[in-house]
TrEMBL record:
InterPro entries: MBL_superfamily_lactonases, Metallo-B-lactamas, RibonucZ/Hydroxyglut_hydro. SUPFAM superfamilies: Metallo-hydrolase/oxidoreductase. This is MBL fold metallo-hydrolase. GO terms for molecular function: hydrolase activity; metal ion binding. Keywords: Hydrolase, Metal-binding, Zinc. Gene3D superfamilies: Ribonuclease Z/Hydroxyacylglutathione hydrolase-like. Belongs to the metallo-beta-lactamase superfamily. Coiled coil: none annotated. SMART domains: Lactamase_B. Residues 57-265 form the Metallo-beta-lactamase domain.
Length: 291
């Protein structure tokens, strides 16, 4: 059980909860798929990151706004043995799954959508409206997604897994699903920000209250090594070149503004600031008290 990390943003109450973690093995080519293995592994070791597998935390943001309880993504759920902790962590915080009113999906990869459904297909959050960009929905439901600009193009089994499971989940949540415009404002406190590349409809989320904002960077960063090498990317980037361009641009903007940023996959709670340094960028985390 992971104790939630709670904080305020203007009039909003925010909480970061864990759905557990996911390991993608081996670490190379999951990170830097087009780079020399020795170079990638050396860089991972320098940051004291594992080289046998890419370890991804699953950090879920909860926003309390008036009578709404809003999740940003829903975790991997029962798709893996090391995930699916979100409902229990919500319950431990006094929030039953039935109390969630809205879920904003940054994109449709299963580590963000797998937690929406029980293994039998029943909804985990039965009273929630689920928001997803129209662009992202159309991409996965068109029948034949384009992998030609992705490292996945040489991995037919992994492609099949995505093109089978993601539409399955999207069909399963259809009664709850509400499709959104690329820059939609949702629940009076959330804006979608298109950040294409990782997927076609990949969206970051800006949470706002008055002049206060928090950037949820979704899958901009899968590991800290991408701060030093934004161009390296990761194996699941659907348009590898576009993802690298988006990553560099957003990192530069975040460093210039010094804004508070949340990451989905960096070590829990994934909250901090992006700074510029001599070798690229660095992560300045906010560490919960007692951790």
């Amino acid at each position: 059980m992971q104790t939630p990390f709670s904080f305020r943003l203007g009039e909003l109450e925010l909480m970061i909860l864990s759905d557990g973690h996911q390991a993608l093995a081996p670490a190379h080519p999951m990170i830097g798929p087009y780079e020399q293995p020795d170079h990638v592994l050396q860089s991972l070791r320098a940051l004291q990151l594992p080289t046998d597998a890419l370890q991804l935390d699953l950090n879920i943001l909860l926003v309390r706004h008036q009578d709404k309880l809003i999740l940003i993504d829903a975790g991997l759920g029962q798709e893996d043995t090391t995930s699916g902790l979100l409902p229990a962590n919500l319950a431990a915080a006094g929030i039953p799954a039935t109390a969630i009113t809205d879920i904003v999906l940054t994109h449709a990869h299963t580590d963000h959508t797998g937690g929406l459904l029980h293994p039998d297909g029943a909804p985990v959050f039965p009273h929630a409206t689920i928001h997803l960009s129209q662009t992202e929905y159309d991409y996965w439901m068109q029948g034949r997604p384009d992998f030609s600009a992705s490292p996945l193009d040489i991995a037919p089994e992994m492609k099949t897994g995505l093109t089978t499971r993601i539409p399955q989940i999207l069909r399963g949540i259809q009664p709850q699903l509400r499709l959104a415009a690329p820059r939609a404002t949702l629940c009076d406190c959330i804006r979608l920000i298109p950040a294409p590349g990782h997927t076609l409809g990949h969206s970051m989320v800006e949470i706002f209250s008055g002049e206060d904002t928090l950037l949820h960077s979704a899958d901009l960063l899968h590991a800290a090594v991408l701060l030093q090498h934004p161009e390296w990317g990761m194996f699941y980037d659907m348009d590898f070149g576009q993802a690298a361009h988006t990553r560099e641009r957003i990192l530069q903007e975040a460093a210039n503004t010094g804004r508070m940023t949340m990451t989905y996959h960096l070590p829990w709670p994934g909250l901090g600031k992006i700074k510029k340094d001599n070798t690229g960028f660095e992560w300045e985390p906010v560490i919960p008290s007692g951790r």
